[in-house]
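Fig. S4 source data, part A: sequence.
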Amino acid sequence: MAIIETEASLHEAHRDNHTHRDVNGGWLRPAVFGAMDGLVSNLALMTGVAGGSVTQHTIVITGLAGLAAGAFSMAAGEYTSVASQRELVQAELEVERTELRKHPADEMEELAELYESRGVEPALAREVARQLSHDPEQALEIHAREELGIDPDDLPSPTVAAGSSFVSFALGALLPVLPYLLGATTLWPALLLALVGLFGCGALVARVTARSWWYSGLRQLVLGGVAAALTYGLGAAFGAAV
């Protein structure tokens, strides 16, 4: 009895610890990319304009315009990209569905050969393929996973990708503008807040990746800082020339 209870506890512990993060959903990549892009691009835009010795009002208008334009551009781009990818996958699924309907025996043999190539005995591989092929939708799902490497029931949503990108970009792009909206009169508060935000975003991303929080945070801070410094220098150079 104790052995059974121990095995049950081990099974329960394995089940609780053997969970995976969502690596196939349509929200993480556009959300992360949007926040980082919003912070870096709007910070660089504002520092570039500030390097040209313009007025505070011009910097604020530039930051707000960059926020709006970038958020809509990111959302539109993500929607089009994910929708096109989804349509391509659905077209390939339709090809596979047609093959399953017209040539079921050939498709079943193809599945059996796939299992054989992975070490399953030929007779068992054919029996497994035969049983799995009874249900056309189940057969389609299995062929899609094995041949195309996709899950027909877990395709990314264009709307989710666009919404995540829009909101995250807007939030990221807002950070460099926020100090000015709260009364700041120099670039330094905006720069410091944006760099802290970059470090924080990088550290947050580390929670869903294998990287350490300080490495991810410093990487984003350095990249954003370099972009801001370069655009400030360009703004100063072009401002002096004009």
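Fig. S4 source data, part B ends here. The mean pLDDT is 85.
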